[in-house]
Amino acid sequence: MKIKFAYTALLFIALLTSCSEQDYYDPNSQVIPDELSDLTVPSGFDWTTSSNISLNLDVDDQFNGSYYYKLQVFNQNPIISPNASLLAEGLAKKNEPFKAKVTYAKSDSILYVQETDPTGKRSVRAIYTSNALKSASVATLKSGSTKSLDINYTAPTRTYTTPSNATVISGSSYSISYSSNQYVIPAGQTFEGQINNSSWYDAYVYVEGTWKNTSTNTELNNLKIIVQDGGKYIPTQTSSNIKANGSAKIVVATTGQFNPDKKEVNVDMNNENGQIVNNSTVFNINNISNIRSLFNYGTMSASGTLSANTSNVQVINESSLTAQNLSINNNANFINKGQFTVNGNTFLQNSIINNNAAFITQNITVNDATIENGCKFIINDKGTFQGTTLNTAAETLLKCNILDLQANNKINLGSYAIMNVTNELKFSNSGTSINGPTSGNKALVKLEKFSITEWRHPAFTGYLEIESSNYPANSGSTGYDVPSDTKYVNFVRKGESTVNIEATSCNEGGNIIQRGGPVIITYPLSTTLGTTYTYAFEDNYPSIGDYDMNDFVLDINLGYTLSAANKVSKIDIQSKVRAVGATKRLAAAIQLDGVLKGNIKSITNSNTSFSGDVFSMSNGLENDQDYAVIPLTDNAHALFGANTSQIINTKAGETHFPAKAITISISFNEPIDISNVSLIDILNVFIVNGGYNTSNRKEIHLRNYAATKKSTDVSSGRNYSTSDLVYGIRVPLSLKYPLEWVRIIDAYPQFKSWVSSNGQNYPNWYETYETNKVYLLEQ
Question: CA 701 → CA 92, 571, 620, distances in Å?
């Protein structure tokens, strides 16, 4: 902590007082200075930017347990993202899964598990961290990457809480009245009858029990039907209709059920502002017409047609949706992030399909529309395109039995994309081209046959390999354009492709040219994780200080060695002290929470310069501790050859000192089981800012990390102020920390909203900063 002379006299006195070794925890010293009065901290805010998930990862073992598969967990899809960060790595085989408690950034909604089989073949599967259960069991990992398109949408409200004062619906017919807008069919009860909302009240009906709707025609008229967990909507008529007009909603919770008996139910959304939101695995419908907003996060089955005919329509599928027919017209937006299956016909006009997973249809007609394919787009029978742009991303698949390309179509294929027409590709009119990438790896066009209507003259451009043995000569009326430079387009006989494309979940096995023999991978397995964590501290505890969070800045990268299944016998800590924005002596150490001192077999520490007046040490560990405490430094300034009055690497106009690396390797007598321990979370990093050689030294820890045995923490284990302001934070990247005397809320414009929203807004606030307010002199 430093003294900034522009502070008020009161704050100046508080800062000077806090430098005294006699000033321990004192709530009266934690008066929030004017400089921080605009930062609102919700009570109980945990200040964390990371969370963890317990993974149980099995493999589809094709070698009957003879060889190990390598499993790696990433924060992004490693196939499409060069910046994917490795979060965990282990081995698995038949009856021996890889189990790990994995820490990830709260801003990551999806993690990716990459499996490498003994022959080197890779596949990737996504795990959603937003699941209510913070654990995941993956039984089979033979799928590959999902190509991530940048397709975002405003998510609807998916869950509702039944008000305690909701009016109970009873009798054989019920009318919504003005006296209440909250109604309930309680759990364990059945209401058999119809509900009327003829006055168009904006009301909610929470179905916790069972609603047996006896009406043939139900008009919701703004009514919101919320089928809660365990609730059921059961129509009693063989065929019935629901008009979801006005702002009506039909929302089905995860274990709720809609029409479990699969009767014919037709919903007309009337082109108005209603919503259907399904989270359940039981949602059965016949037709949904005039759709405005349809969101599926569970399993939805439509035995008839889903149709949208107005503007600004959203049809969103995040899980599994099956329909007999699909008709999207007039500036509608269809987003598929799960599996969407159309057993009959799809019609698309003047609209967009964004497919990020698997879209499967029997037939499709596309007029003046766009298809963005980020994974797998399959037409089981015939596709007819007119004025269509189809963009299929790298390592994805477009598959069709018969594809009729009429006028003015553009099919753009990314690197290693596969276009597979299993019967015939027809160039029926002019103005059509199939385009490979302009750089990178070739795309593959597999054609059983392609034909050209006379003088239509299609074009092949970019990096393409065309695999076919049945096509016309490139001359006269059947001519087609190819680049003059032969490095772009080449042709091969059927079955003789030279483009090797690894199998992923998006390309149905890829195009494997040859497969080598298995490679033996076994224990011990050493890995270095990809995430750099920055620990940034304020040094003036218990006083609040200037909140520039640069008084001690430390980066840590973690590696480990597995000696057996899920057992870590050694961890390697690569740390760098980047800044010391303090004018008092600071020491730093790491306590391994939950790891008893006696379980340490050996420690190597690249920093051997300790004076002994802060940490009394033996064999790399601090003496008289229950848990293992590994000192990093007893004088942070001395690491840089500076005295304690010198501020290091926090002022833009002063000399930059290279970061000081401290490497620590720790071996254990009894390996740590990472199936229930997060290695990064057991690192209790702290600094010492006073009482250095006393029995009650002043330690500054992150929120919810306890002080060591050498410190009496009279703030009851909190290590934060009575105003909930903390003195240390950890972020999952190498933070561009604020300049001297620049509050973190000014350097990071999203920080304030993150805090005040209890972490709900801007969970990745640390990625957006003001360049003139952070330290940028590091190389």
Answer: 37, 21, 21
Q: Residue 500 in contact with residue 122, Cβ under 8 Å?
A: no
d(CA 265, CA 510) in angstroms, rounded, equals 41
Cα–Cα–Cα angle for 484, 490, 493, rounded to 5 degrees? 145
> Strands 525-528 and 533-537: what pairing?
unpaired
In DSSP notation, 376-393 reads EEEEEEEEEEES-EEEE-
Q: For residue 351, give the nearest of 378, 387, 380 by alpha carbon.
A: 387
Alpha helices in 379-443 (DSSP H): none
Q: Tell me whether strands 299-308 and 282-285 are parallel, antiparallel or unpaired.
A: parallel
Q: How far apart are CA 193 and CA 203, in angstroms?
A: 18
CA pair distance 737, 211, nearest whole angstrom = 57
Taking the C-alpha atoms of residue 151 and residue 338, their distance in angstroms, rounded to an integer, is 13
- Tally: H helices and E strands in the chain: 4, 57
Lookup result for tokens 């597999």: 446
CA gap 73, 693 in Å, rounded: 43
Can you tell me the distance from the alpha carbon of 548 to that of 683, in angstroms, rounded to the nearest whole number? 23
Amino acid at 742: V
Tell me 64's DSSP state. Answer: T
Cα separation, 607 vs 611, whole angstroms = 12
Longest dimension (CA), the chain: 96
In the chain the first and final C-alpha atoms are separated, in Å, by 25
Q: How far apart are CA 735 and CA 642, in angstroms?
A: 23
- 616 phi-psi bin (left φ>0, alpha ψ -120 to 50, beta other): beta
Integer Cα distance of 200 and 421 in angstroms: 52
Amino acid sitting at position 369: A
DSSP state of 752: H
Residue 468 phi, psi dihedral angles, 5° rounding: -170, 150
**CB count in 10 Å sphere of residue 86:** 16
Within 8 A by CB and 6+ apart from 389, the residues are: 369, 370, 371, 409, 410, 412
Using the structure block, give the residue that is written with the tokens 């451009």: 461
What is the block-wise mean pLDDT of the chain (779 residues), using blocks of 10 residues? 38 32 43 72 91 90 91 80 90 96 90 81 66 40 38 90 96 88 96 96 97 97 97 98 96 97 96 93 96 96 94 93 94 92 96 95 97 97 97 96 97 97 96 94 93 92 88 78 71 78 92 78 96 95 84 98 97 98 95 97 96 93 96 96 94 94 98 96 94 84 90 58 80 97 95 95 96 89
How far is 712 from 706, CA to CA, in rounded Å? 10
Token pair belonging to 714: 């009279």
Tell me 511's DSSP state. Answer: B
Spatial distance between the Cα atoms of 735 and 173, rounded to a whole number of angstroms:
62
| Sheet with 587-596: strands ordered across | 627-633, 587-596, 683-690, 698-701
Say how far residue 599 (Cα) sits from the centre of its chain: 36
Cis amide prior to 437 (ω within 30 degrees): no
d(CA 264, CA 80): 43
DSSP string, 274-327: -EEEE-SSEEEES-EES-SEEEESSEEEEEEEEEE-SSSEEEEESSEEEEEEEE
Structure tokens at 482: 């190819």
Three-state DSSP string of 94-133: CCECEEEEEEEECCCCEEEEEEECCCCCEEEEEEECCCCC
**Taking a C-beta distance cutoff of 8 angstroms, is the pair 395, 375 a contact?**
no
Whether the CB-CB separation of 175 and 196 falls below 8 Å is answered with yes
Domain extents for the chain?
9-37+526-735, 50-146
- Measured in degrees and rounded to the nearest 5, phi and psi for residue 14 equal -65, -40
CATH architecture type of domain 50-146: Sandwich (2.60)
Strand partners, 173: 194
